[in-house]
Amino acid sequence: MRMIWFGLFCGLTTLVAAQEVTPSKRVYENHLTRIEKPSPLLADYPEFFEPIVEEAHFEAPAIVDDAAADLHVRAWRFSYNARGIIEMPNHLRAKETAVIMVHPWAIDDAWGWKSPEPNGVADFCTPRKNELAAKHTQRVIDPFLKRMRGHAAFVMYSLPGPADAIRTQVYRSFTKTPTAAERTAGEKELRHTLAAYKYQGEPLPDRMTLSSDQPVRDYFQQFPGLDATARYNGDGFWKLPIPVSTSVSVDPNDVVIYDAEGYAPLRDFLKANGVRHVLLTGYATDMCYCRTTAGYENLSKDFNVFLVADASLATFPSNTTPRFAVNASISFAALNQLITQVLWVELAAGKE
After folding, report:
1. What DSSP assignment string belongs to 53-67?
2. What is the mean pLDDT of residues 173-201?
3. Is residue 11 pLDDT above 90, yes or no?
4. Could you tell me the pLDDT band of residue 15, with boundaries at 50, 70 and 90?
5. How many domains, in total, are found in the chain?
6. Which residue range is the domain that position 328 belongs to?
7. Is residue 31 part of a domain?
8. Does residue 12 form part of some domain?
9. 179: part of which helix (H) or strand (E)?
């Protein structure tokens, strides 16, 4: 009960603060107009995303309304208190917008970083699921990045690990833009490093010792549903320099974000370059997309973030399709995030 009253108090305090108009603020008129016969949301790629269907939809005024806007992003969120989905237009300046792809790991592709055999796991955790994610990248995300490149301030990718000596020769980072010669040498070294690793781990346990009192606990302790440690992946697998997936058409001006450097360098880089808005794509909706360095839990503290929901996939254990998992993850995120989709992001020469 104390937490409920504390939440209500904070909410009221925030509301009062928002109504105090200063030269850098505006009063937002939260007028909700019922949308009759609303269409399902995120229905453009049903192979990857189960469309979102809700009875009540409302139209609201623009939240982001930049002068001289040339990027129009229709978005929505869900509110239990409003009893439905709230849709609104938004008008952004493209040059103040970064497009970020979270964790486009080059697993099981031409770079040579592979799922260890016979039971190792990485990214979407099986070669078959990784293949499906690569197909999604090719069909949905890469065309979107190509469309935004040259208009947005940056196209960026986040990857695990530090800004190591190999990858900073291959990709532009916050502090360095490699030359063509450096890229060629770096790519050669990267391929050699990945090819030299022995992608081999242990087989599944064929025998376990279970107690008579708690055999279920003992069983899962010895045979968990996800074990990505050296046991199945081999020692050193996660220390390898992970490249950007070959399903992405990387441009020399695209920037790589390294998770191990932390959020502050990313925040400072974006702000130093005048970025105010972020269109977020990538993987996995239920994990890295929200909680890693370039995840929306960090970025939402400092930028106007739009989750490009059909340009993301959630992990999908126990299923052959990610459709329902990504639907659930985005539906939950929509409580406190603005959601858009690829075809709702439009470049134009001024406001609609």
Report:
1. --S-EEE---S-B-T
2. 97
3. no
4. very low
5. 1
6. 95-206+215-333
7. no
8. no
9. none
